[in-house]
Structure formats: structure tokens, C-alpha cells
Amino acid sequence: MILQDFLTEEELLPIEDVYDKFMRFEIRPEGKDLCDMSGPLDRKPEDFELINAMLPRKYHPALQGNTYERRSASVARQLMADTSMELDYDQLLNKKPNMTRAQFAWHQDMAYCEPEFVTF
Question: Which of these, 6, 4, 3, 2, lies nearest to 68 by C-alpha position?
Fold first, then answer.
């Protein structure tokens, strides 16, 4: 399914600006909430190849309730026919260009969840 005109360029610009600030480390998550998913753990953020900024809404509260978030929630609720769905987790990822190690390793999402929270 393709959602035509989901967001306009004008609606995306403020979100893009914040995303870019995270990727330039102008907004910097603390501890393990900022990491490189492609290399050694002892690298400095400036050397990261696959930048992972977890919980951006925590570190930049103005992101909470942005247009993309509201529209995405509406679509998810309609697809799942569940009006009680809520955002549980947010994350920003950036694969820098021409970086050979900027690849996601095989992994399983939601492995950390309690079984009672995962239903199909």
C-alpha cells in the first residue's frame, strides 16, 4: 500500500531539521542511547558509521506529537483496528554514505519484550 501525500515537504522540514541535529550530535543522547551499530563500542560519535540515536523524544521533547507521529499512529490504529495502540519506542538511524561497515547485523527486534506485551 502506498499512502499518497502522507506528509508534505513543509510538514517534514521541522522533523528533518531535528533529525539532522541528532545526526550532527548537536542533540546528543546519553550513554548507550547513542551508539554505532556497525563497529567497535569504543569509537567516538564522530567516527560512527551507522548512527543509532535511541529515544529522541526523550532528548528533544518538542518531537512528541509531531505531524508524522500523529499520522503514523492514525494509520497503525486503522490497520490494526485498535484504538488503544500507543507509541512505545522511538529511534533515529543514519547510515553514512560510502561506509562499508554501515550495515545492520542480523538481529531480532522486540526480543526484550515481556511475552504478555506481544500478541498476534
Answer: 6
Provide the residue range defining the domain that includes 89: 11-96
Distances (CA, A) of 97 to 4, 19, 93, 100, 108: 28, 16, 13, 9, 25
Kindly report, residue by residue over 33-64, the tens digit of the pLDDT. 999 888 777 888 888 989 999 999 999 999 99
Give domain status of residue 47, yes or no: yes
Is the residue at 108 inside a domain? no
pTM: 0.78
Distance between CA 20 and CA 22 in Å, rounded?
5
Distance in angstroms (rounded) separating the CA atoms of residues 41 and 48: 10
